[in-house]
Amino acid sequence: MNQPLAGLRVVITRAEHQSDGLVAAFTEADARVELLPLLEVVPPADPRPLERAATELALYDWLVFTSANAVEAFLPLTGGALPARVRVAVVGPATAEALRSFEVEPHLEARKADAEGLVADLAPHVARRRRVLLPQASDARPALAEGLAAAGAEAVAIVAYDKRLPPEAPRRAAELFANEPLGWVTFTSPRIVRHFVELLGGFGGGWERRRGELLAASIGPVTSAELRRQGAEPAAEAARPGDEEMVAAVAGAVRRDRR
After folding, report:
1. Whole-structure pTM value
2. Structurally, what CATH architecture does the domain formed by 9-39+165-258 represent?
3. 111 CB contacts (<8 Å, ≥6 apart)?
4. d(Cα 196, Cα 10) in Å, to the nearest integer?
5. Intervals of the chain under pLDDT 50
6. What share of the chain is helix, strand, coil (3-state, %, to 5)?
7. Which residues on neighbouring strands pair with residue 237, listed in sequence order?
8. How far apart are CA 256 and CA 251, in angstroms?
9. Which of 6, 60, 85, 257 could in theory staple to 133 by disulfide, Cβ–Cβ 3.0 to 4.6 A?
10. Which CATH number fits domain 42-163: 3.40.228.10, 3.30.465.10, 3.40.50.10090, 3.40.50.970?
């Protein structure tokens, strides 16, 4: 079987604890995978609001998760059981899988895996002043909270976790890119895009000079929008968020380039 990615170097920048699936998918496609984790999940600077929300969960009608990181930050604080009245919504399959690892089945999974899609599907259920808890990243877009509020919900957003650049990332980036073109690099969140741009500013001529070498593989429209804001057009975008979809997008772009 023809493998369009055979021998192709692909740098995976997802957080180390979440990269196994993407690494396996690209390895299966015979790519030469290199790891450059550009995200490290850390607790919020002030954990008290998150802890308080976990003890007050019975006051809410809906609990909404937009990432596996939020699930993993919040659910252990609940003691392993959710109040019977609380329904749970998730943004997409990876978040749903994280939820099921705690033996919780989502009541709603957005058909379109982004904040706007989640608002569209959840709005009919929260229109009558339903209370909705949103444990999120410190830099989460306001689109979800604002959209649910506009639909009539009482949306309460709290910081569940923060993100930082791993301390070893500059050294690893220099190893990968000091003497080679940037080539194919995966991007699975806007924050990872910003961290990559920050890293490139520290060596090898900087981002402005080297961004033309980049072949960016984006997980979806929100991440692609951040790449464009930074002056880099995505070379491939997954049809929907997922490891296999990322590989398929890169393979399709490589095939087109070889025509």
Report:
1. 0.81
2. 3-Layer(aba) Sandwich (3.40)
3. 117, 120, 121
4. 15
5. 1
6. 45, 20, 35
7. 218
8. 9
9. 60
10. 3.40.50.10090
